[in-house]
Design brief:
Rossmann fold, alpha/beta, five-stranded parallel sheet, 334 residues, disordered N terminus, three-stranded antiparallel sheet, 58% helix, Multidrug-efflux Transporter Regulator, Chain: A, Domain 2
Length: 334
């Protein structure tokens, strides 16, 4: 990786017109003009005829911003983060840095990008607590800033597993124990839900193959785990169809026949919703007899009461998200 001092030595000679820069960065010309107008970024030079010209350094900076947006940052936050990092001498803008992040998304094993922190767990615990506090006090702008600052240092996978996941669980516990109101719990949960959906939608283009369907069991309304799984799978470039909460088996079966996915992931958090999954072979006999598409399942009830793993037809995906991702990838590849 190259430091900000090295990047600043890149040529600042204005050579490239806006059309060339658009093709080199993947940012539309309309967006480039809008960013310059709204954020004064990147401020292009002009020819005598008034046409925009950009330098090599401008292209590095634009590519960095686009990558952060693809990872879930808002445009203004990404630009602010870049300027802050340039001022403090910590930014990494090179092609190799972007390539490293892309490679991390498609490695066969679930690994998290290493961060140069003395005590990784302590830092994540601190960020988690600050995000939790901001959501409890209904300060979503503060949460945005904390997540944006963290995304400068780590990829979304790390943020999801080490911050979003524990915050989502603690919000639920606080509500169940009467320490926050229903309204506060709904606002916080929906805030986290929107971020996970954003990562699902804004992740890089998926692999060209049959999709993975994600659905909650009938009568299962807790979709946090399913959202996290969907975001992680999309970050690893798997094509995902997210169906969400409480999907009736009859409707799911028809949808599966129409879409022909490679795998269906079913999530249940309680014994009641897990019991509903016992009936899926009646609705999808092709999967029950031929194993195509593959039916996998997981959720809290299977972790806390392992005996339920033997009651549900299909493949148990694992007790953690990491195990689940590895199992899904193994099944789909095979």
């Amino acid at each position: 990786m190259t430091s900000i001092e090295e990047v600043q030595t890149a040529s600042e000679t204005p050579l490239y017109n806006i059309g060339v820069v658009s093709r080199m960065t993947g940012i539309t010309m309309a967006t480039l003009r809008a960013w310059e107008r709204r954020y004064e970024f990147a401020v292009s030079k002009r020819t005598l005829g008034g046409h925009r010209l950009y330098s090599e350094r401008d292209i590095f900076r634009l590519r960095w911003i686009k990558q952060r947006i693809d990872e879930g940052m808002q445009t203004a936050q990404a630009i602010h983060a870049l300027r802050h990092q340039e001022q403090t001498g910590q930014a990494v803008l090179t092609e190799s840095a972007l390539a490293n992040r892309r490679r991390a998304a498609v490695e066969p094993f679930f690994t998290l990008e290493k961060v140069d922190w003395e005590d990784r767990n302590t830092h994540f615990a601190s960020i988690k607590q600050r995000v939790l506090d901001s959501l409890i006090h209904r300060d979503t702008q503060g949460s945005d800033e904390l997540l944006a600052q963290t995304l400068v240092l780590v990829p979304p996978e790390s943020l999801i597993l080490n911050v979003i996941r524990p915050v989502m669980y603690e919000i639920g516990d606080l509500w169940e124990n009467g320490k926050i109101s229903v309204a506060t719990e709904h606002q916080a949960t929906n805030y986290l839900r929107q971020r996970l959906l954003m990562w699902m939608v804004n992740s890089p283009a998926p692999r060209s193959q049959h999709s993975i369907i994600l659905a909650c069991a009938p009568d299962e309304w807790h979709e946090g785990s399913l959202l996290i799984m969907g975001a992680l799978l999309r970050r690893r470039l798997w094509p995902v169809i997210y169906l969400g909460q409480a999907v009736p088996l009859a409707d799911l079966a028809k949808y599966v026949r129409d879409v022909n996915p490679s795998l269906v992931v079913l999530v249940a958090m309680t014994e009641n919703s897990a019991g509903n999954l016992m009936e899926w072979p009646q609705w999808m006999p092709e999967s029950a007899t031929r194993g195509m598409p593959i039916i996998g399942f997981g959720g809290l009830v299977f972790v806390e009461k392992p005996e339920w793993r033997l009651k549900i037809p299909g493949i148990y995906l694992g007790s953690t998200f990491e195990e689940g991702i590895l199992t899904i990838e193994k099944l789909v590849r095979e």
